[in-house]
Design brief:
Layout lengths: L27 H9 L1 H9 L4 E5 L6 H10 L7 E6 L12 E5 L11 E5 L10 H10 L6 E7 L5 E7 L4 E8 L16 H4 L7 H15 L8 H14 L14 E6 H4 L3
Parallel strand pairs: 1-2, 1-4, 2-3, 4-5
Antiparallel strand pairs: 5-6, 6-7, 7-8
Organism: Nocardia mangyaensis
InterPro entries: SAM-dependent_MTases_sf
Protein name: SAM-dependent methyltransferase
C-alpha cells in the first residue's frame, strides 16, 4: 500500500497548474546522476518502502516511465507514482507506475525520493521556500527532494538536492559537445538561484571562477571537452572551490558543490 499518514485523507492539491512541457529522454542527465549518487542510492536501498514521486511530470508521462526504469536498476522493487495538479494530465498507470492528482502536499504519500523538474521554475522566487518546506514535511524519514530545471532537449540541467531539513548541494550537468562555456548553464539555474547570478552573490562567483578555469584549460581543447572539463574542475578545487570529484568517468560534464557554496547571501 502507499505510505500515507494513517487515519488521514489525502489533502487537496497545493500549487498552480503550469505549462506542462515535456519530452522523451529530456531528464536523462539527472536520471544518470541519481542512479550513481551514493546518498540517493543508499536511501533507495535502505528504505523499507521504496516509493518515488515524480511531481509535475507534465502533459505526457514519458519521463516518469524513464525514471522508473532507471531507478529500478538500483532497486527492482521500487514503486513510482507520477503526480500532476492538472486532472486532465492524470493518465492510466502501466509497467508498475501509477498516476494521481497531487501537488506539493504529495497527495498524502510519504516517498523516499521526490523529483520535481521544471515545476518551481514557473513560480515566483519567493514561493520556493514554502514549496520546499511543504514537500520536505511530507517525505519519508531520510527522504530526499530533487528540485531541478533543464532546457527543452535536456542538454543543460541544474538541480538542488535537499533532505528533510535543508538543501544539500547544487549540481550542474550539460552535454559536453553543445555547451560552449560552463556559465551558459546559468539560464537553467533552479528558481532559488536564477535571479542571484549577479556580482556579489556566491553563484555568480562560482560561475565566474569556472569560466576562468575553463579558459585556462583551453590548451586541452583538442582532446575533447570532457578532458578539458576534468582539468577545469581540478583547477577549481586548487582555488578553494569544493567541487565534487567523481570516481567514475562521466558522460556529461558535471559540476556539483555543497549548497553552502552557492546559497544566496
Amino acid at each position: 500500500m502507499d505510505q500515507a499518514r494513517p487515519g488521514r485523507k489525502s489533502p487537496p492539491p497545493v500549487g498552480t497548474i503550469t505549462r506542462g512541457t515535456t519530452g522523451v529522454n529530456r531528464l536523462r542527465r539527472s536520471d544518470r546522476w541519481l542512479v550513481h549518487d551514493d546518498l540517493v542510492t543508499d536511501r533507495l536501498l535502505t528504505a523499507p518502502d521504496p516509493m518515488v514521486v515524480d511531481l509535475g511530470y507534465g502533459a505526457a508521462p514519458w519521463t516518469t516511465f524513464e525514471l522508473a526504469a532507471r531507478l529500478r536498476t538500483v532497486r527492482p522493487d521500487l514503486r513510482v507514482v507520477g503526480l500532476e495538479i492538472d486532472p486532465a494530465r492524470v493518465v492510466e498507470g502501466r509497467d508498475g507506475v501509477r498516476f494521481a492528482r497531487g501537488g506539493f502536499e504529495l497527495a498524502g504519500l510519504r516517498p523516499v525520493l521526490v523529483r520535481a523538474f521544471n515545476v518551481l521554475r514557473q513560480y515566483p522566487e519567493d514561493a520556493v521556500a514554502d514549496a520546499w518546506a511543504r514537500i520536505q514535511s511530507n517525505l519519508a524519514p531520510g527522504g530526499l527532494l530533487v528540485d531541478g530545471t533543464c532546457d527543452e532537449l535536456g542538454r543543460r540541467c541544474a538541480w538542488v538536492l535537499l533532505d528533510e531539513h535543508r538543501p544539500l548541494s547544487l549540481t550542474l550537468a550539460w552535454d559536453p559537445f553543445t555547451v560552449e562555456r560552463p556559465s551558459d548553464i546559468a539560464e537553467r539555474l533552479p528558481k532559488a538561484l536564477i535571479h542571484r547570478n549577479i556580482p556579489g552573490e556566491p553563484i555568480h562567483a562560482l560561475l565566474t571562477a569556472t569560466d576562468r578555469a575553463w579558459d585556462r584549460s583551453a590548451a586541452l581543447a583538442p582532446y575533447g571537452p570532457r578532458v578539458r572539463w576534468r582539468v577545469t574542475a581540478e583547477l577549481l578545487r586548487a582555488n578553494g572551490f569544493p567541487v565534487r570529484a567523481y570516481r567514475r568517468r562521466m558522460r556529461d560534464n558535471v559540476l556539483s558543490v555543497p549548497w553552502d557554496v552557492v546559497a544566496p547571501t
